[in-house]
Design goal:
There is one protein chain. It contains seven helices and 15 strands. It folds into two domains: 150 residues, Fructose-1,6-Bisphosphatase, Chain A, domain 1; 113 residues, 3-Layer(aba) Sandwich (D-Maltodextrin-Binding Protein, domain 2). The strands form three sheets. An eight-stranded mixed beta sheet has the order 4-3-5-6-7-8-9-10, sandwiched between helices. It has a five-stranded mixed beta sheet with strand order 12-11-13-15-14, with helices on both faces. Strands 1-2 form a two-stranded antiparallel sheet. The protein is globular and about 50 Å long. Helix 5 runs parallel beside helix 6. A hairpin with a 2-residue loop joins strand 9 and strand 10. The longest helix is centred in the N-terminal third of the chain and has 22 residues. The chain starts with 14 loop residues before the first helix and ends in a 6-residue tail after the last helix. It is of the alpha+beta class. One of its GO terms (biological process) is phosphatidylinositol phosphate biosynthetic process. This is Inositol-1-monophosphatase.
């Protein structure tokens, strides 16, 4: 059962229209971010918690994204990082206006706007079938520094700047380059995570930590990484990347294999072979 209010549309979701809206919203948010890119010293920055920062750029980019989504898709719920919201209606937008805030504030050009649409249980998709569980169906991750736009539509595919992408074909962990994210805000799971990192360093070709979960998933989708795992994230960090990777032929699941997508912020992802190896690597270190 979904937590969203059940109000399914009489007709299936128009995924073509939804991806157009999401791309438009992502460009609107990114335009705000880039307007501040060379004036970071002037930004007003607040500290929500240890190592959890929010800036004027985050807030204004989110407002720009929300303005597009509310005008063009008022029937959908919205859950956004800075302003919150609730899952509602047949589907809900999950929005991170600036994934990689710390990178952005330090002038590191590795951050993105992330927008996803999650269809709720019972909502019909094109073709007439209803989803049996909450399912990310639209994903947009836009990296304005590189002008790379990752997009995905459920059942159709994933693209980078209009070119179809697929995950890597690396078959074994010892040949794999992995992405991860260190504990930075919530350190309660460090005792589980650090043994995972130790094993991954010793069993893979290399481990990278770039500081933007949405891009980690997108880069896994296009084969730059072979696998990715992280803990302590939020739904808006991973919703778009989940569908982008899945539509690129990869696997992205809740680390505990309980939720239909990594809504709890703990995930394992990769091409099918590396996903299995990585899931086997992390599972022994998980608390019940």
């Amino acid at each position: 059962m979904t937590t969203a209010e059940k109000r399914p549309l009489a007709s299936p979701l128009d995924l073509g229209a939804a991806i157009d809206v999401a791309v438009c919203a992502a460009h609107a948010g990114a335009a705000l971010l880039q307007s501040y890119a060379h004036h970071r010293a002037d930004l007003v920055i607040d500290r929500k918690a240890r190592n959890d920062l929010v800036s004027q750029a985050d807030r204004e980019a989110e407002a720009a994204v929300l303005a597009v989504l509310r005008e063009r898709t008022p029937e959908f719920g919205i859950v956004a990082e800075e302003t919150g919201g609730n899952a509602a209606g047949p589907a809900t937008w999950y929005i991170d206006p600036l994934d990689g805030t710390t990178n952005f504030l330090h002038g590191i050009p590795h951050y993105a706007v992330s927008i996803a649409l999650v269809a709720h249980t019972g909502t019909r998709l094109p073709g007439g079938d209803a989803v049996a569980e909450d399912t990310p169906v639209i994903g947009v991750v836009y990296d304005p520094s590189r002008e790379e736009l990752f997009t995905a539509v459920h059942g159709i595919g994933s693209w980078l700047n209009g070119r179809r992408i697929s995950c890597s074909r690396t078959a074994t962990l010892d040949d794999a380059v992995l992405a991860t994210g260190f504990p930075f805000r919530d350190f309660s799971f460090a005792g589980q995570y650090m043994p995972m990192l130790h094993d991954a360093i010793n069993q893979s070709r290399g481990v990278r930590r770039m500081g933007a979960a949405a891009l980690d998933l997108a880069w896994t989708a296009c084969g730059r990484y072979d696998g990715y795992w992280e803990m302590g994230l939020a739904p808006w960090d991973v919703a778009a990347g989940t569908v982008i990777l899945r539509e690129a032929g990869g696997v992205c699941t809740d680390m505990h294999l309980r939720d239909p997508w990594p809504v709890g912020g703990r995930l394992v992802a990769g091409n099918p072979d590396i996903y299995q190896a990585l899931q086997s690597l992390v599972t022994p270190h998980l608390d019940a």
